[in-house]
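User: structure tokens for this one?
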Amino acid sequence: MGDQIPKYLEETMKNQDRFTIQTSPLKRMAPFDAVAHNEDSESDLAGVYAYYCSSTTGSELDRLELKPNVRATCLSMACGLHSQRFYGDVFISRLGYFSNESGYHLINSSLESKEVQYACETPDLRIAVIQEVNPNAAIDRIFPPQWLTEAAKANYEDAAVLAVLASVMKRDKQGNESFGESGYESDNSSVSDSDESNHATKVVAAKDVPVAQSYVAKVPLCLQCRRPSRNLCPHCEGMQFCGSPRDCAQVGWSHQSICKTWAQYTQRREELASFPFDWHLPLINRENQISEEPYKNYLTNDLGVLQTAEPPNWWSTETSGWSGGQSSSAKGINFMNRLSYSQGFAIDGRLLPPERPVNEDDVSRAGVTHESQCNLLDLNSWEEYYKVRDIPLESPVALLLTFPLTIYYALLKYGAVPITVARMLSRPIRIHVVGIEKELNFLDMFKELAFLLPRDLPVSEF
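Assistant:
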């Protein structure tokens, strides 16, 4: 009894003096509980483990003897283990407590190939993505197992806890190190100041917080070595690598595990960058990615919505954010104050959506249809939204309305079941919005969501 696979693999392995079998959990086994265990839950409570060869000598020649395993690495990414790299043959097995005539025993249990088939091709297990990556996959056969979702959730949570712990330990260590006269940690990096000015911008915290400096790149960086590079991966066109003689793409081979998936993302660049208006063009250059000053100047000078003498409006937290209510912009906000569209957007009234529900005349004029399942307006672009709300294309309200419209689009694409249940029980559909801070500044803007939804579908947001 027990985990028999390492012993079996070691007995059949060549070069036992140079290699050993390692075990890596993809999904950790639940603690044994005789009350919770039953035949139906045994597989769910079992762990899923990967077994692979590892060099005992640390020799580079031994490492090169084991070829990168792209499929197993992709599977580990699907399980939320993005730093795991596998080499050589990898064996996957369940390990858990299973019952027989004499009681429960810790034993290995096989997996069906279909359980990991698609996770070995893409770490993004959404059915639409799986179909794009594998066009031959039949949609009625794409059922990623529950343990994969549970593994990803548990591993992400573990990683978050470890990140917090590492951050605390790093702060403690920094507290014991010497800092310069300005209160910042002295920089012993081998990168010269001239190199930094060419390729990165320093981002430094407040003077009373002694933290290490971080950097924002001004040019694309190689995914592997982080040097400046403009050589796009020819397959996905989503990441840069250094070319010859460095061959960083070969060293950073794990990109192959997600390359096909990224190719699906980058194919939508033109679609996602297509807007019916052109006022956004000054906001999509590189300067806006490395600094908020261009956007602040746009709001102040072009739109005139950040005038210091004016009362706070919905644009007030666009630059300084919220920061738990401690930012300079958040301190002037009283989210108990109710604002109309005119007060909140603080722009010409001709550029605002009407502060009323959508009616059939609006729908007919815009030529928009209702989707069949839940009778929601089938809005799939800003152009359609602007038409149905009779907003001129020169209006910049989309900059803020992206918040409620994102929720609307999520309901349109994924809300069929909860909407149907809410209607059956004659109750509002409940939307839990997690991680809101800045949204506290424009709570009244979320009534736009109610204006778009059918009148028989009340909404409660939490």
